[in-house]
């Protein structure tokens, strides 16, 4: 049996070597991406060890004292951490419920347009904000919502409503964060879903038209089921980044007047880690976020496979 097994392994490795030699240009093209992920994603993972140390920048990782799970205990015992975690979860849920479906709806609507010039113009308009940095988006939103010169308050004044300082009240900050994200990034998701729609076999629509199906019925019975694998993959990826809402996305809008409902884990890590130099403590928070994200992906992938048969792996 051992001889047969060795022969099989030799034949299998020889087949793989031939396959790699045949498609070596593809492997060469993927090499820069692999090197990038190894250097900037996998090598920094070794630095997570300082979450279990009382890290000292002068002593380094090798000379810093080990403290075990003390930083994780401190994280949950800290009075401000629970409200910050609550803000992160709520904003993530709002983004998942309101922002995630928008690109799908836009893609379905754009797909129904028959005037190609108008379709390209609308597609370009909704896609352009994706290329703007959050600093520029923040400046635009601040200008639009300004209590003295903003267009929103100007319209409210015409209706007899007193000016509202939107960025100075806790009640509006979460809506502003989610709404600005929809305006900035919905165009990117729309492009992905339009590409998935373009790959649908046109014969399916022709058969549906011959059977007398309306456009709405074609969308519900052909388009949406056909792009469901793409929807599932993007949904699972967003779930994996559930606690990673984005530092710059929140920081440009954050101020002492709205921080009660606006501060999230990323901005707290910046304040505690870089400003206050609590490196080990904030590394523990980052490790906590990574573990939660991994767990959400695994659970979401299993539930997705049971419900739709589609998943990331």
What is the CATH superfamily of the largest domain?
MetI-like
Instruction: Name the structural class.
Output: mainly alpha
| First-residue to last-residue Cα separation | 33 Å
Q: Secondary-structure element order, as H and E?
A: HHEHEHHHHHHHHHHHHH
What is the CATH class designation of the largest domain? Mainly Alpha
**CATH architectural group of the largest domain:** Orthogonal Bundle
Binned strand content = under 5%
Q: How many strand units?
A: 2
Uncertain stretches: none
Overall shape = globular
Give me the CATH fold name of the largest domain: MetI-like fold
- What order do the strands of the largest sheet run in, or round the barrel if closed? 1-2
Largest sheet: 2 strands, antiparallel
Helix content: over 70%
Number of domains: 2
What is the radius of gyration computed over CA atoms, rounded to a whole number of angstroms? 25 Å
Walk me through the structure:
There is one protein chain. The protein has 313 residues and is mainly α. It has 16 helices and 2 strands. A two-stranded antiparallel ribbon has the order 1-2. The longest helix has 29 residues. This is Sugar ABC transporter permease.
SSE order and pairing:
Elements: H1 2-22, H2 24-42, E1 53-54, H3 60-63, E2 65-66, H4 70-77, H5 81-99, H6 101-111, H7 116-127, H8 134-144, H9 151-158, H10 170-198, H11 202-210, H12 215-240, H13 247-251, H14 259-262, H15 265-275, H16 279-307
Antiparallel strand pairs: 1-2
Helix pairs in contact: 4-16, 5-10, 6-10, 7-10, 10-12, 12-16, 15-16
Domain ABC transmembrane type-1: 85-300
InterPro entries: MetI-like, MetI-like_sf
Transmembrane segments: 24-43, 89-110, 131-152, 172-198, 219-239, 279-299
């Amino acid at each position: 049996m051992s001889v047969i097994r060795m022969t099989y392994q030799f034949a299998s490795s020889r087949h793989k070597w031939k396959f790699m030699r045949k498609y070596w240009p593809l492997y060469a093209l993927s090499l820069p991406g692999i090197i990038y992920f190894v250097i900037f994603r996998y090598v920094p993972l070794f630095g997570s060890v300082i979450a279990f140390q009382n890290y000292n920048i002068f002593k380094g990782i090798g000379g810093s004292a080990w403290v075990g799970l003390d930083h994780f205990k401190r994280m949950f015992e800290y009075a401000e951490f629970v409200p910050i975690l609550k803000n992160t979860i709520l904003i993530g849920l709002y983004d998942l419920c309101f922002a995630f479906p928008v690109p799908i709806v836009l893609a379905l609507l754009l797909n129904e347009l028959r005037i190609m010039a108008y379709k390209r113009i609308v597609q370009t308009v909704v896609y352009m904000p994706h290329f703007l940095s959050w600093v520029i988006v923040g400046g635009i939103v601040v200008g639009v919502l300004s209590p003295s010169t903003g267009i929103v308050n100007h319209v409210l004044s015409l209706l007899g409503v007193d000016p509202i300082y939107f960025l100075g009240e806790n009640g509006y900050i979460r809506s502003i964060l989610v709404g600005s994200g929809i305006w900035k990034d919905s165009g990117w998701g729309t492009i992905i879903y339009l590409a998935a729609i373009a790959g649908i076999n046109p014969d399916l629509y022709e058969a549906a038209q011959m059977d007398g199906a309306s456009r709405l019925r074609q969308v519900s019975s052909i388009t949406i089921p056909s792009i469901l694998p793409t929807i599932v993959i993007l949904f699972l990826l967003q779930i994996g980044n559930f606690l990673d809402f984005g530092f710059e996305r929140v920081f440009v809008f954050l101020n002492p007047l709205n921080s009660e409902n606006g501060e999230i884990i990323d901005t707290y890590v910046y304040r505690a880690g870089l400003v206050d130099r609590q490196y080990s403590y904030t590394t523990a928070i980052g490790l906590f976020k990574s573990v939660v994200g991994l767990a959400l992906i695994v659970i979401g992938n299993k539930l997705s496979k049971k419900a739709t048969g589609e998943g990331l792996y």
